[in-house]
Design brief:
Strand content: 5-15%
Strand order of the largest sheet: 9-6-3-2-1-12-11-10
Number of strands: 12
Oligomer: single chain
Distance between the termini: 17 Å
Shape: globular
Radius of gyration: 23 Å
Length: 493
């Protein structure tokens, strides 16, 4: 990835201000692009844009190709004549301007979008058909999956009737007929999402702002991906996973982490020329300019855990596809701009793999200051081919870290960056990232705003209360844009 020295801001779409309970692809998203331009930024980094399921995590999605219908903007549908303002004007989408209430969004927004679907049937038939032609390799399976899922009371697909669970041909045909209108609704939602997203991305690109999108290495067990391509995963005859993904015991967890995602059958994928993965990358290139792959080290070797294990400690390391996969992607799609999320336990083999790929890895400043040992995350150890972060969506905010980290580590950071209360420790960390040799520097919006721990996006290994953070509209100010722009010019980004 040959990028010029530059910088950007990490903030998910759901975190944008909006009068309707959640950030959307409407007016406030365009205004945020304008803010990025005024702030002198060249990148907007997002979390995965897929439809979210239990726990509301964008990293556990019903599809690795589809877009999240929660992000569809209602005011844009009014402009198109698909809705009237009265259809949602007095709806309770949640009253907290700093938190998404996902339950209310699910209960209130999807019925409003169904009304838009009913209003669209005559006018948009040709446009939707054209969309289906462009996305046929995934959208038919996804729409059928969502329709059947609703038919069975939103149960996971492994709990459906045996014939449709196993995708018997006569069952697929029967459900397509039975649920034709419901399938049409899910087609419609994807048509709307991609139409609104493409317009926003085009606007950003026109202002020379590139979008970094995040894709998790694994798919969710309860997903259209696993149901429609079950042969590509280690599943038994009843479609239960034989092995699941996770990570081994480490300094963060004595028992490791059980993620629960099904493991790929890399042997079969290799025989098929990695066709599904090439399609996945190709699909994501329609959404993003740069792809950040979460858990990149899992392509070199991954932690495989028997399905019935109580903890991740019973797992083992298994070799992944390594460069064979990425050579196949390059052969089919040409050079793809990829950022390798290479955090965690890195062996010599993993480091060599990242070097062989040529993709920039990640350096997180919050991981740099450990008084017990010298860290690779200290800026004086960087080479240019890296992306420097103050923190990621999984980290505390810088201010949160300063308040909760070991006092000696905070003092070390203060010495290293010459942090002062007057400047603000968060600005000192941003200055540290922006002044480094890394080609790209990124900070979450929360760090620019100097917000504390209650504003963090996610606390790993916890359920509930995550992914909810939203920014108040008045925080995204002209004064902040000028300050960011000044720092960005100072350090040649």
């Amino acid at each position: 990835m040959k990028m010029k020295r530059s910088s950007g801001i990490l903030m998910h779409i759901t975190s944008l201000p909006s009068p309707y309970g959640i950030g959307t692809l409407g007016k406030d998203a365009y205004e945020f692009v304008d803010f990025l331009e005024r702030a002198g930024q060249k990148y907007w980094q997002l979390l995965p844009l897929g439809p979210t399921s239990f726990g509301d995590s964008p990293y556990q999605s019903f599809s690795s190709f589809a877009g999240n219908p929660y992000l569809i903007d209602l005011d844009l549908l009014v402009q198109e004549g698909l809705l009237r303002k009265a259809d949602f004007q007095n709806t309770d989408f949640g009253s907290d301007r700093e938190k998404v209430d996902f339950e209310k969004i699910y209960l209130q927004k999807l019925p409003i979008l169904r009304k838009a679907y009913e209003n669209s049937k005559k006018e948009l038939a040709d446009e939707i058909m054209s969309f289906l032609e462009d996305h046929r390799d995934w959208v038919e399976d996804y729409a059928l999956y969502m329709a059947v899922k609703k038919h069975f009371g939103m149960k996971p697909w492994k709990d459906w009737n045996e014939d449709i669970k196993q995708r018997e041909e006569n069952a697929l045909e029967a459900y397509r007929r039975l649920l034709a209108d419901e399938i049409g609704y899910w087609f419609f939602l994807q048509y709307l999402f991609f139409k609104q997203w493409t317009a926003l991305k085009t606007y950003a690109n026109h202002k020379k702002i590139r979008i970094i999108g995040d894709i998790p290495i694994y798919v969710a067990e309860d997903s259209a991906d696993a149901w429609a391509n079950s042969e590509l995963f280690h599943l038994d005859e009843y479609k239960n996973p034989i092995y699941i993904a996770g990570c081994p015991p480490d300094s963060f967890s004595e028992i490791g982490q059980l993620w629960g995602n099904p493991i790929y059958r890399w042997d079969l994928l290799e025989q098929r020329g990695y066709d599904w993965w090439i399609k996945r990358i190709e699909g994501n290139l329609k959404l993003y300019d740069v792809i950040r792959i979460d858990h990149f080290r899992g392509f070199e070797s991954y932690w495989e855990i028997p399905y019935d294990s109580k903890t991740a400690a019973t797992g083992r390391w298994v070799k992944g596809p390594g460069m064979k996969l990425f050579n196949a992607i390059t052969a089919q799609l040409g050079a793809v701009d990829i950022i390798a999320e290479d955090l965690g336990f890195l062996t010599e083999e993993v480091l060599q793999f990242r070097t062989d790929s040529g993709y920039p890895g990640m350096k997180v400043l919050q991981f740099a200051f450990d008084t017990r040992e010298e860290s690779d995350y200290l800026p004086h150890n960087y080479d240019k081919n890296c992306v420097v972060y103050t923190g990621t969506h999984d980290n505390d905010t810088v201010i949160g870290w300063v308040r909760t980290a070991n006092e000696k580590d905070v003092a070390y950071a203060a010495d290293y960056f010459h942090l002062t209360e007057e400047e603000g420790y968060h600005w000192g960390f941003i200055r540290g990232a922006w002044s480094s040799v890394g080609r790209l520097a990124i900070a979450p919006l929360q760090d620019f705003l100097g917000l504390g721990s209650t504003h963090r996006m996610n606390i790993p290994s916890t359920i509930g209360g995550n992914w909810q953070w939203r920014v108040k509209k008045e925080y995204i100010s002209e004064k902040l844009a000028e300050k960011i722009c000044q720092l960005t010019r100072l350090y040649g980004r």
